[in-house]
Amino acid sequence: MFRKMLETMGVDNVIAIDLHRPEIKGFFRVPVVHVAATGIGAAFFAEKELHAPVVVSPKAGGVLRAQQVGATR
User: What percent of the chain has pLDDT over 90?
Assistant: First the structure.
């Protein structure tokens, strides 16, 4: 439904942040650019100078992203 709405509006490109699955890009008939926000989030928390922060994921699918945020400290 969302895809059809965008197409009806005449959207010719989509920029998506943190897609749950890369395959989602295949549902669109227009080019999709996937931007990962991991670096932005890691930079934000790095500025906070937290002592021994713990990065967790609410589900198994996000473990890799949580590890990436923790690794960029």
Answer: 3
Query: How far, in Å, CA of 49 to CA of 37, rounded?
Result: 19
| Contact present, 11 and 31 (Cβ < 8 Å) | no
Write down the H helix ranges in the chain. 2-9, 38-47, 63-71
Residue 44 φ then ψ, to 5° = -60, -50
pTM over 0.90: no
pLDDT tens figures, 21-33 = 888 888 888 999 9
Residue with tokens 């930079």: 43
DSSP designation for 30: S
